[in-house]
TrEMBL record:
Coiled-coil spans in chain: none
TM ranges: none
Signal sequence, start to end: none
Name of this chain's protein: YlbF family regulator
Species for this entry: Enterococcus hirae (strain ATCC 9790 / DSM 20160 / JCM 8729 / LMG 6399 / NBRC 3181 / NCIMB 6459 / NCDO 1258 / NCTC 12367 / WDCM 00089 / R)
Record InterPro entries: Bact_com_dev_regulator (IPR052767), Com_YlbF (IPR010368), YheA/YmcA-like_dom_sf (IPR023378)
Origin superkingdom: Bacteria
Length: 142
């Protein structure tokens, strides 16, 4: 790569885009939801409970069907995870996280299409539209 004024201009534009994303309403909502979730005593208790149950389950995983408490621990982990995921503050955070990821995916898609329509984008969302193009280059998803 040759370092010249064009490279510096691109770096400046990237920094400008990054600043715009950081100042966006989507980013503000994401950071607010994250802060609310992290400061919630209820959420922290659920996270600790899930972590403990996950560690207990991981200890018996190598023995699976030979460990008598395997199914019990597996169900306990799933229940703890479900309780955590369904907590209102965690759900709000995940929603904001998805919205931010969608914004980043759209920006990546627009940048790539500006350069070439044949560039494939690995979007963080498996449901992200690729305008008739599949990730493998085939046409089975059109």
């Amino acid at each position: 790569m040759i370092i010249n004024e064009e490279l510096f201009a691109l770096e400046d534009q990237c920094q400008s885009l990054s600043d715009c994303i950081k100042k966006s309403e989507t980013m503000k909502k994401y950071l607010k939801a994250k802060k609310v979730m992290e400061q919630s005593a209820d959420v922290n208790l659920l996270i600790n409970d899930f972590s403990i149950k996950k560690e207990q389950f991981e200890k018996v995983v190598p023995y699976q069907k030979y460990a008598p408490e395997f199914r019990e621990k597996q169900r306990a982990v799933r229940l703890a995870k479900r309780q955590l995921d369904l907590h209102e503050k965690v759900a709000d955070f995940r929603c904001m996280e998805t919205q931010l990821q969608d914004l980043l995916d759209k920006i990546s898609q627009q940048l790539a299409e500006t350069v070439s329509l044949t560039i494939k984008i690995d979007a963080g969302n498996p449901f992200f539209e690729q305008k008739g193009r599949s990730g493998c280059g085939g046409n089975c998803h059109e």
